[in-house]
Specification:
With about 150 residues, this protein is mostly beta strands. The chain has one helix and eight strands; from the N terminus they run βββββαβββ. The chain has one domain.
Amino acid sequence: MKWIDGTDFGYYVLCPESHVAAWDCTEFMDAFEDYVGWVVLPEHGDVLVLGGEALPATYLDRRMTFVRNYAADDDSGLEQAVEQAMGSDDWTDAFEVSLGGSYRLMDCMAAGDDVAESDAIRVHIPEGRYLVQSLVIEAFPDDQFMLERLVRI
């Protein structure tokens, strides 16, 4: 599982691949939400922003779920805990977005042409409209992870 931990500012962006080189760090300024938000990027559509705190982040492709390590020593047991959480009634609805294509999850305050491959996670999302939902889980007692999942609607 690849993690990125390249943000001192606390925000990651799911930037369209076609816009990465042009990303200049100002595009997300309207997305200051507690932990998840979005902005509309002209000619690229909705762009997801994960924020709140500077936490390591990863993406679980099979479950279309972004994970941030809130208070855990390691990620052992994480995938099993996420699988169990999928059926939970405790997910909180955040908002709906239209996504689709190839993206990079990266530090929103890094200029796109400065983002190294090791500082980003490639994400492919099938074209569609999605409900973003949030949940905090424990993989083990006192090991907390923040989840944001995309649910096709």
